[in-house]
Amino acid sequence: MFKTGVIRPLNAHHFLRGDFGPESEPHTHPYEIEWIRTAHELDENGFSTDIAAMEHTLESVLGEIDNKLLNDLPFFQSRQTSLENLACYLAERLDEALPQPGSANEIKIWESKTAWASYDW
Description:
Number of domains: 1
Structural class: alpha+beta
Number of helices: 2
Oligomer: single chain
Strand content: 25-35%
Helix content: 10-25%
C-alpha cells in the first residue's frame, strides 16, 4: 500500500453554538491541514497519485474558506463548526475537486502540535 500526502495552513474563523466559553465567540485557529491518499498499486509511471494535483487541489479548496467565517458556509448551517465536521466538509470538497476511484483518503486537521482530528473516506 502506498501513501502520499500534502500539508497546507488554514486560518479558520468560527464560533461554536452553545455554552463553550470563549469558543462560543468568533475567533481564529491557525490549523495545519494534512491530506493523505492511499493506493494499492502504482500507475504506469510509478506513481500512486499525482502529488502536484493534490497540492494544487488542497490549496484551491482551502483558499475558498481561508480567513472566512466557517459558520456562514451553507454546510455549517445545521452543523457545529467542530474539527470533525470541518474534516467532513474538506473531504467532500476534495473528493469533488480531485476524485481518484480506488483510492482511500484521510484528512487530518492539526489544531496544535499535539492535537488533531481526522476523517477517512
